Amino acid sequence: MTLIAENIDIIKKKIAAAAKRADRDPATINLVAVSKKQPIERVRAALDAGHRLFGENRVQDAVERWQDIKPDYPDVKLHFIGPLQTNKVKEAVAFFDCIETVDREKLADHLAAEMEKQGRSLPCFIEVNTGEEPQKAGVSPATLPDFLAYCRDKGLDIVGLMCIPPVDEPSALHFALLQKLAAENGLDHLSMGMSSDFEKAVSLGATYVRVGTALFGEREES
Ligand SMILES: *Cc1c(COP(=O)(O)O)cnc(C)c1O
Fold first, then answer.
1. Degrees (nearest 5) of the Cα angle 108, 111, 117?
2. What would the DSSP string read from start to end of the chain?
3. Which residue, judged by its Cα, is nearest atom 4 of ligand 1?
4. Given a cut of 90, is residue 66 above it in pLDDT?
5. CB 18: neighbour CB atoms within 10 A?
6. Is the pLDDT reported for residue 221 higher than 90?
7. Are 95 and 78 within 8 A, CB to CB?
8. CA 194 to ligand 1: nearest atom
9. Does the pTM exceed 0.70?
10. Using a 6 Å CB cutoff, which residues line ligand 1?
11. How far from each other are the two terminal CA atoms of the chain, in whole angstroms?
């Protein structure tokens, strides 16, 4: 068994244990392996271990990385988890299976138009800036209901909410807020929790956890 396969196994067991403690069905929690900036051998090792759900935060990097691999693994699903510029929307819609970072009207407009054009209706998450940090992407909790209505009116298939908590605050507060917002707005899915806090996220209702370094090891800087 490779180290990556072992890591996947360990993380899945931790997810299952956290789910059990919270009286949740572990099968409702999906592990997004965040493969950004990871050496290709590690990605291959995850694929060899049977893993099929991955996250990338840059369109160009993801296309370079995955265009040769994806045809060999038709069941691979790629989630886009980074900031999305409108000039990358066409490629993102063509290449990804889910957009987790819908965060402004202009982006919603472009995504809706492009999905219509390509005949691809991708599930989307709205990114919420739970810490209301000025430099961070995401809609504020207060504007979420209006933004959700806007996205739906455009025809986007919004399935849930996503957040990246402030680094200097306990993430549990933000996970709890995201859980509350999803419940208030009738949304089923929550994408939250990373290497350091995915178990906490599971205990607060995450249905997708995004784990990079705990699964693959440290990233290559580029
Ligand atoms: C990089 C990244 C992750 C993974 O972070 P780790 O700490 O390596 O698990 C999760 N979510 C987003 C949005 C990221 O950009």
1. 140
2. --HHHHHHHHHHHHHHHHHHHTT--GGG-EEEEE-TT--HHHHHHHHHTT--EEEES-HHHHHHHHTTTGGG-TT-EEEE-S---GGGHHHHHHH-SEEEEE-SHHHHHHHHHHHHHHT---EEEEEB-TT--TTS-SB-GGGHHHHHHHHHHHT-EEEEEE----TTS-HHHHHHHHHHHHHHTT--EEE---TTTHHHHHHTT-SEEEESHHHH-SPPP-
3. 212
4. yes
5. 22
6. no
7. yes
8. 9
9. yes
10. 34, 36, 57, 81-82, 164, 194-195, 210-214
11. 29
Question: Taking 80 as the threshold, does the pLDDT of residue 1 lie above it?
Answer: no
One-letter amino acid identity for 166? P
**Measuring CA to CA, which residue among 2, 8, 6 is closest to residue 211?**
8
Tell me, what amino acid is at 91?
Answer: E
